[in-house]
Design goal:
The chain is mainly α and about 300 residues long. Helix content is about 70%, strand content about 0%. It has 17 helices and no strands. α2 packs parallel to α4, α10 runs parallel beside α12 and α11 crosses α17. The longest helix has about 35 residues. The protein is elongated, with a radius of gyration of 23 Å.
Length: about 300
């Protein structure tokens, strides 16, 4: 794993909407390589606020510190988690309905737990069992759930950054909805094609936060390249991208270039010459088969990212 990948996964985990105790257990088990049995025996009775302090110290001692990062850097990465420690337990568990359902029995058996401050609670408050082996199994499950979420989010952010930097803006937005959010082309045409691209980027950001639970700060970073391109016209973007291609490209790159050229011939000049952010999605339709065009745009954005 590269340093960049490690850092991105840390940001994803620390800013996740999963309950803080799951995040903390994952940081120890996955990033600091603690054995789940050691976590249960050594850390279960300590307040979560103290465990975050220990995570910072251990990152500096065995992780980030050896790479030359400062304490301020580590503190910044873990700040979203620290902010969550000030929430009430019920609030922290209520961010996701399925999470709240999983802890409903624990909250029922411990009526005062929901009103406590998260940072004052311990891992032991959330196990829902007493046997060390069962508790270690809980830690394994927390780690697995967090790891699955982190990998899916990392893949989505990587794809978002690649299509945003390499594809025409309306292609990139089609790819966001069809490939990352799993929307049907018909729904996309019906619900999103009338928006200016500036506004559609904002909507896509909200949809990704809600449907994929991707933290806002990470989304802003991933969308930066796409947002910058909204100030330029399609004509200008085409000239720049075609000029950068080799004289006789092959494979996906050649097909993507052909699609660019074919589309450019059909888009009215008053659309192609305006800043992309000030154009609407439906102004790029050059065929009655609008759903088919959206699918083509999504594919072309993927080809740009792969080339």
């Amino acid at each position: 794993m590269t340093l960049e990948e490690y850092d991105c996964l840390l940001r994803i985990v620390a800013s996740s909407e999963n309950p803080p105790h799951q995040i903390i257990a994952t940081l120890f088990a996955r990033f600091l390589e603690w054995d789940p049995n050691e976590i249960v025996s050594e850390l279960s009775a300590r307040p979560l606020s103290k465990l975050v302090d220990r995570i910072e110290d251990e990152f500096l001692a065995v992780g980030f510190g050896s790479l030359g990062f400062s304490r301020e850097y580590v503190e910044t990465r873990l700040q979203p988690l620290r902010d969550r420690l000030n929430e009430r337990v019920l609030t922290a568990l209520s961010r996701d309905k399925s999470t709240l359902g999983a802890y409903r029995e624990i909250l029922r058996r411990r009526p005062g737990l929901g009103a406590r401050i998260v940072g004052d609670t311990t891992l032991g408050d959330y196990y829902g069992c007493d046997e060390p082996a069962d508790r270690a199994d809980r830690v394994v499950k927390w780690r697995a759930a967090m790891q699955k979420h982190a990998i899916r989010t990392y893949v989505a952010l990587s794809a978002l950054g690649e299509v945003g930097a390499g594809a025409l803006p309306h292609w990139a937005l089609a790819a966001v909805y069809l490939r990352l959010l799993g929307w049907d082309p018909r729904r996309f045409v019906a619900e999103r094609s009338k928006y200016l691209l500036f506004d559609l980027v904002t909507l896509a950001r909200c949809d990704l936060m809600q449907e994929r639970r991707i933290p806002a700060a990470l989304l802003d970073d991933a969308l930066e390249a796409l947002t910058r391109r909204l100030d330029r016209s399609m004509d200008a973007l085409l000239e720049e991208e075609v000029a950068g291609l080799p004289p006789d490209p092959g494979g996906a790159e050649a097909e993507a270039r052909a699609t660019r050229m074919e589309e450019a011939l059909g888009v009215p000049a008053f659309v192609a010459q305006r800043p992309a952010g000030r154009t609407r999605m439906d102004e790029y339709f050059t065929s009655k088969d609008t759903e088919g065009q959206v699918i083509l745009w999504s594919w072309a954005a993927g080809a740009c990212a792969a080339s």
